[in-house]
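Protein modeling request. Please complete all fields; requests missing the sequence field cannot be processed.
Requester role: graduate student
Desired output: 3D structure, token encoding
Chains: 1
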Amino acid sequence: MTNFTFNSSEDLKIFLKDNKFNKILIISGEKSYKLSGADKIINELLVNKNIKYFFKKFAYPDLLELKKIIKEINLFVPDLIIAIGGGSVLDYAKIANVLAYSENLEQEISTSSYKIRDKFTKLVAIPTTAGSGAEVTSNAVIYINKIKYSVEGEKLKPDFFFLIPELVIAASYKIKASAGFDAIAQAMESLISKKSNNESVNFAEKSLKISLKYYLDFLNNPNKDNTSAMCLAANLSGKAISISKTTAPHAVSYPFTSIYNISHGHAVSLTLNKFLQFNFENIKNSNCNFSLKDRYQIMFDVSKTDSIESFDKYLFNLKKKAKLENDFIKLGIDLKKDYSKIISGVNILRLSNNPVELKKEDLKEIILK
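Delivered output (369 residues):
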């Protein structure tokens, strides 16, 4: 595994003491805050501090709750925000720290006319899942009327992050499986994104080498080593997509989350194979400034496969072993019946990053395949 220094509760204690923060807003999920063990660690560190908690209620980041967080920040006026949780918690904190409250926030975000201000205060990100790498990305997700939008800008990046494996290991199997696969999918999508470059490829390849080695062990026999490995894989995949952004599988995943309540990484897994196969079969039609074939070769090499067919089978088996249901019918999804509803929630911006241009008829054929 790549040399990397992981954090401990002691590192966090030293950080809080050295920086003399007094008014601290903690954003988290109430259930995950306790299950991860964060409550015990954090509460001990924050004695004699003025603390305010905001526990999110929504399963995914929603505009209505975001407005409440922005109001809370303005009322409490913290000198530090600690976001401790999964990608949704971190995304809430990142956006709330750079957008001013506005009655027109819905329109501003949906039309990308929002104005990113200077950060309200310092932000610390502490992930309790090994998945999105949101602690190092310059974008965040928000849903408005069940449609996903992105807020992007360098100021969204947290000022500090702590990777504390002991907070991740206690997550449920289901959360680990979904979040871990998100890290895998992000790295794969980053490799073939039109916006990728040498730096993002380096991050993505390192991430994949780690995640594909440790993912299943992390699910079935979690320990400090494989949990630390997956935390690093997620962090590296976050660094990769912060540069390259994601592609079609992520773009199509959001309606599956907002409409059918399928967790994010699981939702991405539903179409990853299909889009990877489509892009490979249409390499001659790719529109990117790199060799798409070479990028696929990286994925073949890391997964120890030698063709798109064996790679497809490898991914399918990986999902099966991780107990990520791949059958839409079993998930209660009628693709033909609900296609219009699903496609209306697709993030068009992410589709534009796909290495092969996707026409409406392509999209429909791929999804219904």
